[in-house]
Every structure is written in structure tokens, then in C-alpha cells.
Amino acid sequence: MIHKILYLPCFVYAISFSSIILLYQVGWSDMFPVLNGFLLYFLLATIGISIVLAFIQKKHLNIPINDVNLSPSFIKRAMYFIGIGYTLEFLYESSIPIIKTFFSPSYSYDDFNGIPTFHFVLGTFSIFFSILMFNYYLSNRSRKKMFQFIATLVPYILIMNRGAFMIVFSAMIFLFIMRMKAINLKTIIMPFVVLGIVLYFFGVVGNIRAEQTKEDKEYLLRVAGATDKFIKSGVPVEFYWSYIYIISPIGNLQNLMIQKKDVFEIDNVGVFTITQLFPDFISKRLSAFFLDEKNLENVDGSGYFVTPLLNAPTVYFGAYVLLGSVGLVVMFFVIMFSTIIYPYLIKKNSKYYSMSIASLNAIILLSIFNNMWFNVGTVLLWPIIFSAVERLKLK
């Protein structure tokens, strides 16, 4: 298939960071610094390297598109686990975020932390299950399977978790592309239409979630430095949330590199490893055991955000805070190593294989916004776990 390269992990990195560089040049905000210097050259170099690796991957990595057959009992148990799990979390927090945010203007979705450790396990399993159910639907489309998939998205609405939804949505796109037999006008237009709808509602939810924009719809335009170019464009304000959210991570990183001296501190290597390369629930426990308060203070780079309202940091932000430009190089190596090694950790005849690649691609794509390895890296472990269980059952 000529379009195979579109869903290869290395190529996804190239597309995601190329897109953000291009959007940065649109000029709808005058708040962020000009993208130049080492950061620009670094991004261009990594994009070039990832494209070369993508063509190598295209030649050697075969990604079979397996049909997914799930037993009704498995679906039922997973649904019960998720439903009961979030019910327990709502009881633990004494609130349901989507309801509380409407009745309490001062409430922030960040106030919902759930049950320690369990919240992280439940959240990453929910994402894994949503992606699996969409692939299940694509394997043998039916109305029942579509409703089952939609039901898995309800928790993200209740807790107002745009991040989880975007991971699932991104993985859906890659699963859809994997199953395309050929590219035509319809298959090109439809994803852009769906993307436009998603980005619009991303802005709608943003207006609801942010305390300041609940009553003042133009608050974001003021604080994000909307230019006359955008205001006169006639583009709905809701899309400005998506635009500014997409470009702000690189803007924050550029601002960090302007204000913070590029220094490699050997003492920060351990802190970098624990806080940047391990998933959240593991990182927190390692931090409590190995790191002191002074070490953890070194990780905090929030003072370098252009504005506290737009605090998306990219996968490279923490790496630079701790290790300078060396941290960027190390993090890029980790990303590329993962894109090359992970596809070989799951058997290709497993029903979890294609959704595992789609999950990896989603995490790489969304790394432009945050360190997804830290936030939801555990999502990649679930296919490995269930694939191993599947093999044991067959023995």
C-alpha cells in the first residue's frame, strides 16, 4: 500500500512536528517568541532523521491488519470495571466534574484527582479499551459495536478529559488509515471534516472548562495575543483554542531556551530519568524514594511559560529544564528507540497488534503537547499484557 508510510511511527513524528512549525508561522498570535536558533535547527534535524528512519521502517516493518474478535464476556467485564471504577472515583471525590463545573464557576477540572494509583490504572485502561473497541467496530461494523464504542467515551465527558479523548481520536485516525485500501478524494476530505468538528468542540469544551471563559468568551483572545489577522479572518473563536493550544508548547519551549542558560548538569541525570522517562504512577513512587525536595524543584519549569493559562510544555520541555540541549537529544533518541523497538514487542498475529501501533502513533503525535510517556505511557503496556495473556491461554 502506497499510503503505508502515513501510519509508520517514525513518520508520525515528522508529520506532527512539521505541522506545528508550519502553524507557528500562521501569525494569529503575537504573544510567543519567534522560532529560531538551536530549537529550530534541532526540530528540522530530528524531522529529517525521522523521515529517513520512516523509509527504512517502510521497507522492513510489516504491520498486518488483523480482525478483532472480542468475547461478549470480556467486553462486559471491561465495561463493568470502567463503570464501577469511575463511580467509586466520583464517590471518593464527592463530585462529577462536568456537573460541578456548571454549578460552581470556581471549580477546575484539575481539582479531580480520583483515587491515588487506581485513577491512573483506570484512566489508561479506559483509553486502551476505547481504542480496542473502535478497532473491533472497524473489523466487523455493526450498530451495536458502534454504540459499545461510544459508551467507552462517556467517562472522558464526565471528567472533562480532553487529553484522553484526543489520544483515542488520534488512534482512531491511524486505525482508519491502516484499513484504507486506497486513497481517493473521499478518504482525503472526510478526515479533515471530522478533524474540523473535533477541533471546534475542543474549543467549546475549553470555554466551559476554563473559569475565565465561562462568562467572557473573548478572554482567550486577549490573553493569548490574538492578532488583527485572526480577528478579521472570520474564523470562529472556538477554533482559536485549538490553534493557540497547538502552537503554545513550542512557544513555551522557545521562551524557556531564551531565558534559561543551556547547561548540562550531571546531577540532574537521575532526576531526568525518573521524572521524564517513567510513567506517572511509577515516577511518583521512585521520586518519593530517591529524590528530595530540592531535586523536585529542579523539574519545575512553570516559571518559563509565556502565560500560566497556556501551560502545555511539549515532550522536550522538562528535558531542557534538567539537561539543557543534551536533554533534547536524549529525549529524541528515546522516542526514536521506542518507535523502532515497540512494534516488535507484540506478536503480529495478535488482535492487539494494530491497535498497539495506533496507540504508539497517538502518543508520538501528541508529544508536541506534553511528555506523553510520563502521562499515559502505560497505555502501551496494556496491549503487551493482554497479548501475553492471550498466548498463555492458547498453550
Give a short summary of the structure.
With 395 residues, this protein is mostly helical. The chain has helices at residues 9-24, 37-60, 72-93, 97-103, 118-139, 143-158, 162-179, 185-209, 219-223, 228-231, 237-259, 269-276, 280-290, 293-299, 317-323, 325-341, 353-365, 372-376, 381-394. 34% of the residues are buried.
Please work out how many helical segments DSSP would assign: 19
Poorly predicted sequence stretches spanning 5 or more consecutive residues? none
Helix content: 55-70%
Q: How many E strands? A: 0
Compute the average pLDDT. 86
Provide the structure class.
mainly alpha
Q: What is the general shape?
A: globular
Taking all Cα atoms into account, the compactness measure Rg is: 21 Å
Oligomeric status of the shown chains? single chain
Task: Describe the main β-sheet briefly.
Answer: none
Question: In what range is the share of β-strand residues?
Answer: under 5%
- Succession of helices and strands: HHHHHHHHHHHHHHHHHHH
Cα distance spanning the termini: 34 Å
Task: Write up this protein.
The protein has 395 residues and is mostly helical. Helices cover 67% and strands 0% of the residues. The chain is built from 19 helices and no strands. It has helices at 9-24, 37-60, 72-93, 97-103, 118-139, 143-158, 162-179, 185-209, 219-223, 228-231, 237-259, 269-276, 280-290, 293-299, 317-323, 325-341, 353-365, 372-376, 381-394. The longest helix is centred in the middle third of the chain and has 25 residues, at 185-209. It is globular. The mean pLDDT is 86.
